[in-house]
C-alpha cells in the first residue's frame, strides 16, 4: 500500500504548476525534448533524494518516538493538509511568469533548484508520517524509486508537451485547475494519514 501511495504522491507533487514545472517546460520548448527530459529527470532525482531522506527519517522516528507515534502521524498529516490548503489559497497564474532563457546543464540546474525549494522540504517532512513501524528494508528502498518514477512521468509530460502545454500553461484557468488538482491530491494524503492515526 505504501508503494502505491508513494507513486500517487509523486504524481501529485509534480503536477503543481510552479517554477520547476515552468523551467522543465521551457527547456523542452527552447532547447528541445532531450533538454526538457533531462530537466525533468533533475526534478525527479531531487524528489528521489528527498524521498530517501523521508524514508530514513520515518524509520528512525519510529524507533525513537515509541508511544508518541500516533501524535507524530497526526502532526505529519496535518502538515500535508495545511500545505495543500495554503497551495489552494495561493494559486497564482504561473502562465504569466516571465520565461527567461534557460541555463545550461538542465539536469543539474533543475536538480539544484528543486533541492533548495523549501516547499519540497515541507512536503517530504509530511510524508515521513506515512512510514508505518516495522516497514521492511525492501519497501523503504522501493518507495523512493516509485515516488521518483511518478514524478518523472509528470515532468516528462511537461517536457514533451511542447506548444500544447505551453498554451495550457499560459491560460490562467488551466494553471488553477492543475494546481488545485495537485493540492487536492496532497490534501487527500494528509486526510488518509489523519484517518489512520485517529482510527
- The CATH topology corresponds to Growth Hormone, Chain: A
The helix-strand sequence is: HHHHHHHHH
Sum up the overall morphology in one term. Answer: globular
Supply the helix-strand structural class. Answer: mainly alpha
- Tell how many strands the DSSP assignment holds: 0
The structural domain count equals 1
The main sheet comes to: none
**Roughly what fraction of the amino acids lie in strands?**
under 5%
End-to-end Cα distance, whole Å, is 17 Å
Reported CATH architecture = Up-down Bundle
- Number of H/I helices: 9
Unreliable parts: 93-98
What's the helical proportion of residues? Answer: over 70%
Whole-angstrom Rg: 17 Å
Overall pLDDT level: 78
Write the topology of this structure.
Elements (H helix, E strand, L loop, with lengths): L1 H13 L4 H13 L1 H33 L3 H21 L16 H10 L2 H10 L9 H24 L1 H7 L3 H27 L1
Helix pairs in contact: 1-7, 1-9, 2-3, 2-5, 2-7, 2-8, 3-5, 3-6, 3-7, 4-6, 4-9
Outline:
The protein is an all-alpha fold. It is 79% helix and 0% strand.
Amino acid at each position: 500500500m505504501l508503494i502505491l501511495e508513494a507513486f500517487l504522491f509523486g504524481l501529485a507533487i509534480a503536477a503543481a504548476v510552479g517554477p520547476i514545472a515552468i523551467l522543465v517546460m521551457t527547456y523542452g520548448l527552447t532547447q528541445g525534448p532531450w533538454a526538457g527530459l533531462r530537466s525533468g529527470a533533475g526534478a525527479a532525482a531531487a524528489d528521489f533524494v528527498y524521498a530517501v531522506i523521508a524514508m530514513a527519517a520515518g524509520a528512525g522516528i519510529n524507533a525513537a518516538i515509541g508511544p508518541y507515534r500516533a501524535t507524530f502521524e497526526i502532526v505529519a498529516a496535518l502538515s500535508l493538509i495545511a500545505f495543500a490548503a495554503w497551495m489552494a489559497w495561493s494559486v497564482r497564474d504561473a502562465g504569466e511568469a516571465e520565461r527567461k532563457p534557460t541555463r545550461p546543464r538542465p539536469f543539474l540546474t533543475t536538480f539544484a533548484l528543486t533541492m533548495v525549494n523549501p516547499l519540497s522540504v515541507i512536503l517530504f517532512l509530511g510524508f515521513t508520517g506515512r512510514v508505518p513501524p516495522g516497514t521492511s528494508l525492501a519497501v523503504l528502498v522501493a518507495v523512493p524509486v516509485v515516488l521518483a518514477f511518478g514524478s518523472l512521468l509528470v515532468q516528462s509530460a511537461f517536457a514533451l508537451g511542447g506548444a500544447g502545454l505551453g498554451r495550457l500553461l499560459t491560460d490562467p484557468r488551466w494553471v488553477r485547475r492543475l494546481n488545485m488538482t495537485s493540492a487536492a491530491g496532497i490534501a487527500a494524503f494528509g486526510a488518509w494519514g489523519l484517518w489512520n492515526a485517529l482510527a
